[in-house]
Amino acid sequence: MSSVTNQGVKRSMRGSWYALFVLLFLYVLSLMDRQIIALMVTPLRRDLGLSDVQVGLLEGFAFVVMYTLAAIPLGWAVDRFSRRIVIFLGLAVWSLSCSGAGFVTTFAGLFASRVGVGVGEAALSPGAHSMLSDLFPRRQLSMALGVFVIGANIGVAVSYGLGGTLIHWLSVAEKLQLPLLGEFRPWQLAFLIAGAPGVALCWLLFTIREPVRQRQGEGAASSQAVFAPVVSYVRSQSGALICVFVGFALNNLLGYTILSWAPAFLERRFGWHIGEIGPALGILLGGAGICAMLASGAIADRFYTRGRHDINVRMSVVAMLIAAPLALCAFLASTPQICLLFLTLTYFCTSSTVPNAATSLQLIAPNELRGRLAAGYIFLSNMVGQGMGPVTVGFITEHVFHNHRLVGYSLATVLPCAAVAGSVLLLIGLRSYGRALDQAEGLAAARVDGADIGKRPFPDTGRGVGRPLAATNDRFDGRSAE
């Protein structure tokens, strides 16, 4: 009997890892479609006459406003309906919107395209976070979410590496003629190509199964209500949620702003062309981000099993404090080599915090609210990170320094300030987060004990709350719904 059970668990875990890598692949596509515009600043300024503020609006505000607004109802849909279907519909919308940018010739058209990409991509993270939380036991959740979010950095590597090479190759011809479609500029064709894989491969979602929703709380019956349960929970845990997640949102500002303006900075400051910038940033930032996220997840899981359950927040404080001086050195560097060295180290620090944010929320969130709370965090982090970061840099460059070649000074001002402010907020909210975590761990332990699974002693967790770690971890049986 035990052998049969173990084989069933192994099969279920293989299915869980397969689902993780499908979701990871979709995240790669989403970041590629989201970030490829950062390589087109110069041709967009030239062909459409855009200012740095308009470029900042396209890179940040146009995408993030609808991304964050759509995340709330889509988070509710994740909690209420099939998560596969919600993600599938989002994938179709963002891929078609990205390709649609290849047919526009105005700022308004590009703005509308970026809005569509934002609406579609808003479905992915809440759906994926909720699914992974039901596919993996708590002791492996940091690693699972860490693997998922490295898709962002693989997407950076693909969009910058392949995208930069593609745009440079296409730019040899001023205009290109496609059969039946007409004449395209190189940047238009790059948008068209970037969105095509999502349209062609959306069927992959139906090769994974919808997992059973685990660890339902007493509030599950209220999951059909959109806002009331979320507002009630946020009020009860306001000290933890406000300080900690605004702090994580400021970390997102670092990452998004680097991705949005680093290509333009290297071009303006050191005279590099896009064929050099794309592969260099793709390899260095993509590689640094992947290593940081995997290492962060592994370290957090190791400390979690030893009873340090708030390790995700503590690690993030240290990483953001280190990132502040590194960012200053990167954008005041006198050579491109020194710049890239410090830029890579900065991005390593900010990337290591990304899985910590996702895990920190999932560890304290009730199951029936996970999608909506994840969507709420996405709303906050992206409004602060991607909505404010790129456009603030563009504004300072145009209206303070009055010279687009001095974008490095703007970056050296915004990024260190955001890093220090974020780390301070995390420290302020750490104690409240610890209490919220103790409460969540106690509820999880009570459910396991009530289900009569794993009659084992309660070891001290190091935070003053006993928890049957082995029993809670063994509770997971990997069940999936067809």
TrEMBL record:
Pfam families the record matches: MFS_1
InterPro entries, A to Z: MFS, MFS_dom, MFS_spinster-like, MFS_trans_sf
Keyword Signal assigned: no
Membrane topology (UniProt): Multi-pass membrane protein
Region annotation Disordered: where it falls in the sequence: 455-482
Entry's Gene Ontology molecular function annotations: transmembrane transporter activity
Residue spans crossing the bilayer: 17-37, 57-78, 85-105, 111-132, 144-167, 187-206, 239-259, 279-299, 311-334, 340-365, 377-397, 409-430
Domain Major facilitator superfamily (MFS) profile: 19-434
Record keywords: Membrane, Transmembrane, Transmembrane helix, Transport
Cell location: Membrane
GO cellular component terms, semicolon-separated: membrane
Cross-referenced PANTHER family: PROTEIN SPINSTER, SPINSTER
Name this polypeptide is given: MFS transporter
Taxonomic source organism: Paraburkholderia terrae
